[in-house]
Amino acid sequence: MKAILYVGHGTRSKKGAAEAKQFLQSVIEQTHGSIQEISFLELTHPFIEEGFELCIKKGATEITVVPLFLLAAGHIKNDIPEALTPLIEKYPNVQVKVADPFGVQHQILDAIAELVKEKAGELNGQEAILIVGRGSSDPVIHEAFAMIGKGLEQRLGIKHSRLCYLAATTPTFQEGIESITQETKDRVIVIPYLLFGGLLLNEINAEVKSRQKNGYQILHTDCLSRHQVIRNIVIARATGKEDEYATTRY
Length: 250
Description:
The protein is α/β, with parallel strands linked by helices.
């Protein structure tokens, strides 16, 4: 019997965890499968082992693991495989397939452009965008964000963009937002490249509000899971229709 195990990152924020679970529940309701379980890599229960064991108890002989991660950083390359290895060894007769992370997809960039236009209204091309990533020391992530920045510039007709990160690498979020607000005479649009709300999005929101009070023309878009395309991509991963959402296209 086939099963689907969704794996989110996890968060210390109760609101963020509830948001992620609510999102996944909506995916489950739209995905035909008798065994579907939710799990998280860290910080939020149930963890991967708990979700995997629930799939087994319900009779799973094939498990498709669907990571809810935007890019292939250390969690995808190391942490999730490390969590799954003892489970695969424990249940050698169970086939386990791990779906790819989302990657840089033109559908996601189109969705972000829509979120920007919904928030900012009509653009004049003089605005600047600040793309904020979670952060990773992996150079592949930096290459991906360069593609994301270029793709959004093209879609929005904006010439000035910057990238920054909330942890693990530079430029930091504080460095990025300070630089772009000083350089830009028009509006600054901050784009959190995050799937769900939580402490990281709260940090961005607090900084943006602080600068708004100081007279800066600055705003930020919401987390990416607010757009239907993200839900569609997760469903495609879960049902084995990944080819409908090809990566590295922007």
